[in-house]
Write a structure and sequence with these properties.
Layout lengths: L2 H17 L5 H11 L16 H15 L6 H14 L8 H11 L8
Length: about 110
């Protein structure tokens, strides 16, 4: 099993165990591949829900640029909702899991088709 496959398994386990979602493995794999080598770096592989700058980066670079959504309060609400589902007290919120949940939330799976 490759290192990337191991990471995808870890992300899938987080979705199942911490959020109670059975992931679409094909979509999760594509989201993970889209993140490139950042998934192997301890800092860039996670999202800090307590950092406004970090959440703004998720909004601008992922929701607006990658998914093509228009800026507005719905984006911040969606990020807050995902962070709530993942658990505010959970220190390691994997970026791939957050992006997967946001992609599904907005029904933008076609971006990864």
């Amino acid at each position: 099993m490759s290192k990337r496959d191991e990471m995808i398994e870890k992300f899938a386990a987080d979705l199942k165990d911490k959020i109670g979602v059975t992931p679409d493995m094909d979509l999760l794999t594509k989201v993970t591949i889209g993140l490139g080598p950042s998934i192997y770096n301890a800092d860039s592989s996670t999202v800090s829900s307590s950092s406004d700058a970090e959440l703004e980066t998720v909004k601008k670079n992922f929701l607006i640029k990658k998914l093509g959504l228009s800026d507005g309060p719905k984006l911040t609400e969606a990020i807050d909702s995902v962070m709530e589902k993942y658990g505010k007290s959970n220190r390691n919120k994997y970026r791939a899991v957050v992006y997967y949940l946001l992609t599904v939330h907005f029904g933008k799976e076609s971006v990864y088709a």
